[in-house]
Structure formats: structure tokens, C-alpha cells
Amino acid sequence: MRSVQKEARVRTAISSLVDTEKMKQLSFFQADLTRANGWANEMVGADSVFHIASPLGTGTETEAELVSIAKNGTLNVLRGAKIAGVKRIIMISSQAAATARRSVGNLKLDDNYWTDMSNPELVPYYISKVEAEKAAWKFAKQNGLDLTTLLPGGIFGPLLDSHVQSSNALVSELIKMSLVPKANIEVTDVRDLAAAMRLALNTPAAINKRYNVGTTPTTFLKIVHTFQQDGIRSKKLTLAIPNGVVKFAAKFQPSLRQLLPQLGVKYWHDSTRAHDELHWHNRCWQETMKDSATSLKDWGIIKTRR
Length: 306
Prior knowledge:
One of its GO terms (molecular function) is oxidoreductase activity, acting on the CH-OH group of donors, NAD or NADP as acceptor. The chain contains 11 helices and 12 strands.
């Protein structure tokens, strides 16, 4: 953790799902992705490392800022693992590292597809994810590490406490807004992603491979309509915002900039390899989004009514 003062809060959140004896096996140490120190000593004796964190940003960061944190942070973790003698690494990348141009149309992207870095539609976050994953593969190859990367879509699902991450903050906004961008999204349930991490770790054939781990694509409009049908959202009038308006508004509203690569997209990522090789199973996006919204309600973060 960047600050071990958060340990008590995290323990409380996790203990609601983990029995007392297993909680005794959980320990914490202080480290920061932006700093090289603090990793290797604490990894000694570990069998494997899951590298999960990467900055999403607010839309105001420059490409150089996000790339620096994501890429160098990844290398800090992998260098620490190398020094500590840990060979097995599971890294959470993103479908952002497998982004096509809108012009490709209705195309199925497999696990080996990489983002075209010359694509002018990319935003800094997408570029940072590509740079971080490519750096991981290069370092792993040069240093004999057994790497697997998982590429989720937007990560949603129930909360462990009242601290709202960026994805579920989007759910809160979709419940409230009347004007909705015509953006596509591929959903990954946080519970399914956790399962994929463990399955990848326990599957020797997963070494040196990438895996798409998302659901079939949907749209923000369909998600909003599902919320209305389930009584999660009380607003009846929902209008789609033309893509041109979203692009213009994004010049002044940083939070909209992350949506730009998803406007007008028809391609999707194929998760067949994860199903076949990892024996991974995922929830449908309707269940995930409903559970996300219900969790926000249960924690008192949003109020819903029919």
C-alpha cells in the first residue's frame, strides 16, 4: 500500500468475505508504483506476483504523465520480483491495449491483437496501458519471467466498502443522467476477473500468453434501460447524445475524454481462449451491472426507487 494507514479499512472490508483463519495469512507492506524501493525485500519467499494497479487518470493528465506511472510502475514491480527470485507474474492489462480503429467495423479481435499506436483516436490512458504491457513482455523475456496478461473491459461489480472506484462511479452517473453517450462498452465483472487471475496462475499453459476476459459488448443506453426495467433507475426519459456533441464537450469536460475511443465502435474482443484454456466462466453484463447498482444502493451511495 502507498500508505499502511489504510490497512485497517482494507482488513475490515475483506473480512466480511474471508474467514478468520485465512485472514491471519494476509499481510501488508508499504510501496509506491512511482518508486523502485520497497518491492524486492517484501517479495522474498513469494511464489507469484499479481500486478493489478495502474492509474486511470481523470482526463486532465498528459500522455507522458500516465505513461510514466503505468510503464515505470510495472517495471518497478517486475524488477522487484526478479531481485526477489519470483518467476511467475500475472498482470492485469486492459482491452485498451487491444484497441482497433473505428473504421475496422464489425471485427472480432483475438488475444494477440495489439493497439495501433498511430491511431489518432487514442487517449493517454489507452497509450499508457499499451506501453506498460509491452514493457512487461520485454522485461519478462529478457529476464526469464513467466508472464501472463489479462485484458478486461470496464471493471464493475459489488463493492467491499463505501469507497467508490472510477468504474462504479460511472454506474452512479448512468443511474442519474437523462442524456447518455452512444458509447459501446465491454464489461468485466470484478469477481470474474479475480477468478481469471487464479485460473491463470494455476494453468501452466497460460504462461507467455494474453487473455481477453470480457463479456459481449453492450451500450450505455442498454445499461440504462436495464436499470429502468429493474427499478434501479426512476427516470423515464433517456436521450442519446450525438457523438459530435460528446467530442465537443470532452474538450471542456475531462471525464468525457476516456469515452472518446468507444464512440461508434463496432468491433469486440473474443474471450474464447480464456474459456477454453483457463476454463473461465463469466457473468452476463446484465447481472454485473445490476449487482454494481445494488451494491451502491446498499452502501447508501445512491438512492433508487421505482
